[in-house]
Design brief:
Radius of gyration: 26 Å
Oligomer: single chain
Number of helices: 13
Number of strands: 5
Strand order of the largest sheet: 2-3-4-1-5
Order of helices and strands: HHEHHEHEHEHHEHHHHH
Length: 283
């Protein structure tokens, strides 16, 4: 009887060990299949990107859209200005007013030629509104909510700026639901002062929203998207992560992408720490 009882105990232990191994294997398989939520390519994060982390500037933008017609998103290179610009379409103002979205990236337009630029500009407006628009006098520009999202605004030449800003300002006087949101590295009034636009009404019409580096809570929120064991190691190395990334979103996306891919090979803690300490993994 005692022998059979011992056999039963051994059998139960074997089953438990097998189940534990099976659970570990299933967890590993699940982590292998989990989609990488990080974007290390430097492009604007899609609207549905799970690794987009809201900052104070997100709330400032949503608030400004309610009352401000001209908004400038400012900040250094690759700090997240274009990703924030993408979020305009989720703002309560845009959703409530069912605004027409007119998005343009001036980097892909002929800013070296005023005539060609304006032609491209109105073609883009026409496509967005679903009706041909050939001039600022078209009535369609005054009878509905329109949101101009203009990326790389700092590429405008003096000639184009003088042919774009005054008409947009005049249009805003006729259409209270017009919004113009631009992205550029510096304060928009400082940029405009470098052009021939010197009328104070064009310089003071803007609300500047500064996009800053991630703070601790935002860094930790991003790290929490990693597989749990990896996230725990990364969070314990927070000081190193902050030092090497300087809180820059792209550097953090690159690191997390590297850690996420490394996690698929069941790395040891030492390997994860080495990855976190390698400056090249933030590029």
């Amino acid at each position: 009887m005692s022998f059979n009882f011992l056999e039963l105990i051994v059998f139960i232990i074997a089953i438990i060990a097998t189940l534990s191994s099976l659970v570990a294997m299933l967890i590993h398989i699940a982590s292998q299949k989990k989609k990488n939520p990080f974007f290390p390519n430097g492009l604007p994060l899609p609207i549905d990107a799970p690794s987009y982390v809201e900052r104070e500037c997100d709330h400032q933008l949503a608030t400004a859209l309610e009352t401000e017609q001209f908004i400038a998103i400012t900040g250094e290179y690759r700090i997240g200005k274009s990703s924030l610009l993408m979020r305009v379409m989720q703002a309560p103002f845009f959703v409530r007013e069912r605004g027409k979205n007119c998005y343009m990236d001036f980097q892909s337009m002929r800013t070296d030629n005023t005539e060609l630029f304006l032609e491209e500009f109105f073609k883009s407006v026409s496509k967005s509104l679903g009706k041909e628009v050939i001039s600022w006098q078209d009535n369609i520009l005054t009878n509905q909510a329109i949101v101009f999202r203009l990326d790389e605004f700092g590429l405008l030449t003096d000639d184009i700026a003088t042919k774009l800003i005054p008409p947009l300002y005049s249009l805003s006087r006729e259409n209270n639901n017009l919004r113009v949101i631009v992205c550029l590295p510096e304060l928009v009034d400082n940029f405009l002062k470098k052009t021939s636009i010197n009328n104070p009404k064009y310089l003071t019409a803007w609300k500047n929203i500064s996009v800053k580096s991630f703070e601790e809570k935002e860094i930790l929120q991003l790290l929490s998207l990693l597989p749990k064991p990896v996230a725990q190691v990364a969070e314990a190395q927070y000081d190193t992560v902050l030092k090497l990334s300087s809180g820059k979103p792209l550097g953090l996306q690159c690191l997390c992408d590297k850690l996420f891919k490394t996690a698929r090979n069941n790395p040891k803690t030492e390997e994860l720490i080495a990855t976190i300490n390698d400056q090249d993994n933030y590029k």
